[in-house]
Amino acid sequence: xxxxxxxxxxxxxxxxxxxxxxxxxxxxxxxxxxxxxxxxxxxxxxxxxxxxxxxxxxxxxxxxxxxxxxxxxxxxxxxxxxxxxxxxxxxxxxxxxxxxxxxxxxxxxxxxxxxxxxxxxxxxxxxxxxxxxxxxxxxxxxxxxxxxxxxxxxxxxxxxxxxxxxxxxxxxxxxxxxxxxxxxxxxxxxxxxxxxxxxxxxxxxxxxxxxxxxxxxxxxxxxxxxxxxxxxxxxxxxxxxxxxxxxxxxxxxxxxxxxxxxxxxxxxxxxxxxxxxxxxxxxxxxx
Length: 287
What we know:
Layout: H1 4-13, E1 18-23, H2 26-34, E2 40-42, H3 44-52, H4 62-75, E3 80-83, H5 91-104, E4 108-112, H6 131-146, E5 152-157, H7 159-163, H8 165-178, E6 182-185, H9 191-200, E7 206-208, H10 220-226, E8 230-233, H11 236-253, H12 264-270, H13 273-283
Parallel strand pairs: 1-2, 1-8, 2-3, 3-4, 4-5, 5-6, 7-8
Helix pairs in contact: 2-4, 4-5, 5-6, 6-8
């Protein structure tokens, strides 16, 4: 049986860009797979918001992320990327975090260079650690992967906002040299910056497409032309879910029927009743 990590490696080896929606729980991951996507990304922002109702400012713990990740990965057969934040501590914590994410079923973990507690890369107040510590984090993650962990490493830098584009590009170059499988320069602020990053840094690169964020929301075709391998849409499902719930709540409050909803058969199908009924019938006692 092919592991999800091997599936991801095959995707990275294929020509062209692949699209990766963000999930925040098992049902959103199942919907991504059902829609025909090859991968999903479990966003820390989305999990903190949906699971705890708090902002992405380092308030969610390693254990809470791993628990949510296990549920997500168990619900689908496609590779899932996990947001590992800063690794939740020093080098030994990072190695344990990589191990825990691999055991939960993630195909890839993202480790970043922000100061802990970290925050969403498109919000104010970000700070990053110095370059030596940033490299140490990725080295620890790579070392953990190399201890026969079935997981890939994506190395992220937020240094664009604090130290400028040159430093961010240098960090991504060194992350790749250390052995990161994918690199990610967070929040470039123009198409020109995105082009320079892709032309300068080797290895597969990810573009973060957050609606109304700091980075231009380019088409998949343009992202591929520039040199990106992955386009992630980490908050789209959470965003549209909140909007739909707010509209439905307002309808209920006004005594009106909800709009744009599934019928009951569609709802039961989305959560897996047909498969349950099939297995129930298979294992039922025959007269």
